[in-house]
Amino acid sequence: MTKAQKLLKLFLSTLYISAFTFGGGFVIVTFMKKKFVDGLKWIDDSEMLDITALAQSSPGAIAVNAAILVGYRVMGFFGMVVAVLGTIIPPMAILSVISLFYKAFATNMYVALLLKGMQAGVAAVILDVVFNLGTNVIKERSVRSVIVMVAAFVATFVFSVNVIIIILVAALVGVVAEFIKVKRAKGENK
User: Fold this and answer.
1) 41 Cβ contact list (under 8 Å, min separation 6)
2) Contact criterion met (CB below 8 Å) for 122 and 27
3) Is residue 93 very low, low, confident or very high in pLDDT (cuts 50, 70, 90)?
4) Residue range 137-151: average pLDDT?
5) Helices marked H in the chain — which ranges?
6) SS3 for 1?
7) Measured between alpha carbons, how far is 39 from 128 in angstroms, rounded to an integer?
8) What is the mean pLDDT of residues 18-38?
9) Is 44 left (phi over 0), alpha (psi -120 to 50) or beta?
């Protein structure tokens, strides 16, 4: 596959995912995983887990952040640009149309029922993301990662700790663990 073909495939993939995905960033991340990890095998599971963590912890929309990271990982700067364009074009088009007919959509009983029904589907897809990414963390067989994951769930759902604090603490744990690992490696090399 040439670079131009790969860029086109990346653009069409992100365009398709963005156009037919409702429910926000985590839903798009699920479909990105299925496309780029499971389908095309351009990214592996651990990279997708890292991309998801970075996309969530960076300012902005998770879907766009993930597109930036996936695009850059797959094809560098031009891959990033192409993936972002593929990701933002469908919502911009849909929101432009909806804004023209907002009053009609807002008061339409059938649209309201459709949106209620979609909420259940979105919840199921988000649960799928949590299960798949959580399974990948457990497969790593890293006690530290499992403890951080469980602690994050407990902090979020039991104690209602702000997500920003959870992300900062998890990042701090990662930095400290890596620092200790490097320090030990230097000590063994002496």
Assistant:
1) none
2) yes
3) very high
4) 89
5) 3-19, 25-32, 45-57, 62-100, 102-107, 109-139, 143-157, 163-189
6) coil
7) 17
8) 86
9) beta
